[in-house]
Amino acid sequence: MVKEMSILCPLSGESDVLLLEKIEAETLKKVYRQSYLKLDISSELEEVREIGFYHCIKSDLRFFYPAVSGSAQFYEKLQRFDWYYTDDKYEYEYVKNFIKKTDSLLEIGCGSGAFAEKVNAQNYVGLELSEKAQTMASQKGFTVIREFVEKHAALNTGHYDVVCAFQVLEHVANVHSFIRASLQCLKPGGLLIYSVPSADSFYALLTNNLLNLPPHHVTWWSDKSLAYVADFLDLELISIHHEKLAPLHKKGYLAYILVQRLKKLFGIRERLLDDSILYRLISKCSTLMSRFLEPSLQDDRTLPDGHSVIVIYQKKG
To answer: Do residues 160 and 307 share a domain?
Structure first.
């Protein structure tokens, strides 16, 4: 680990950050092309030659710099996969219990309106940058606006009882501005709710986990970094809640366990990207073996924490 005093954390603004790893842009492009995604991300990286992965000592946020966020075209390509946008998410069921019928609700990055269909808030507004998703949500009868939350906040200060964003924050380069604008939209006493992939789960430790790397994700959120937000912005931290390992991630979790053991056996060091032939063989063998071991994870009481964590803050009055 190397200290990098010229790089600032996008959350704390502090320069006390550690360089954990460097990713070569050419390697990232290669792994994207060879993966199940089969995507060419050359236009996303443009002139970027390498991306640093950093850890802020104060906030515990892990982030990539430069923060290469995916374009609209990049996300349109991902939407071709049926699994990319799912209507049934654990966080939807958990969060809807915190929303009353009389609440005024803002959802940032609402997609096609899957969460809006599950809640009974009388005053619902969604923000969505995708024209296709906005059209789909509008056809369901929901009010959806194509604009950034910063612009929306300027005209809707203190308007909402609840502001939420599911699997959005990790895609945002300027997280400080995003969170500030979310809070600006809230009434005093209102709830701010985010769900993000957990940097404390096995998901964050996977090698070649492309959807947890740029240009898809630009920040990683641990429980400590989520708690830091409350201290930093003087919010009441209501809860930090982890989902358990979801059925669709069981094989991935078992494959990860097997990969870790084989890495240790062959003396392979941990890194975010590995395009070596040896790692590809280990990964393939572990994936095949995980199919036979999946029945061993039937007892929900023994399951580890899964992909996502949900944080609920309250804006002080």
So the answer is: yes
pLDDT digits (tens, 9 = 90+) for 81-95: 877 777 789 999 999
Classify residue 74: in a domain, yes or no. no
Q: Rounded distance, CA 32 to CA 42, Å?
A: 10
Tell me how many domains the chain contains: 2
User: In this structure, which amino acid lies at residue 73?
Assistant: Q
Q: Using an 8 Å Cβ cutoff, are 242 and 309 in contact?
A: yes
The answer to pTM > 0.85 is yes
Residues 240 and 278 in one domain: no
